[in-house]
Amino acid sequence: MKEFELIQNIFQASVMASTQGRGDLLLGIGDDCAQVQVPLGQSLVFSMDTLVEGRHFPFDADPVDIGYRAVASCVSDLAAMGAKPAFFTLGLTIPESDPQWLAGLAQGMAELAESHWFGLSGWRYHQRATDDYAASAWLC
């Protein structure tokens, strides 16, 4: 599956990618950028973390757990600053575009994002000829 097919079939199909009812997210997932309107009198707090297979999660880890953890590590950073998550972006490097694995990753991210009312606003995907998986999440 190619990048835009993955976006459309796996990530955009999730509730976490919806911009419905969101006045702050003007343009969400679909390309390399998102567009955000910061409410007057508020500021953005950013957090970013990267998880690498073999270092931050075992080689046989469930992709649902990887997705949840990628987002949770940044949510924790925001909470430490007294900030509330609004949306996140995802950077993903994987050896192949396995739709089943990616659906599991999306499910794990969605479990946390949907329960705290924030969503996926953008992503970047790279396929590499390696056996390593890496996921980076930015939260605002």
TrEMBL record:
Keyword field: Thiamine biosynthesis
UniProt KW Transmembrane helix keyword: no
SUPFAM superfamilies in the record: PurM N-terminal domain-like
Domain PurM-like N-terminal positions: 30-115
Superkingdom to which the source organism belongs: Bacteria
Protein's name according to its UniProt entry: AIR synthase related protein
Organism (species): Marinomonas rhodophyticola
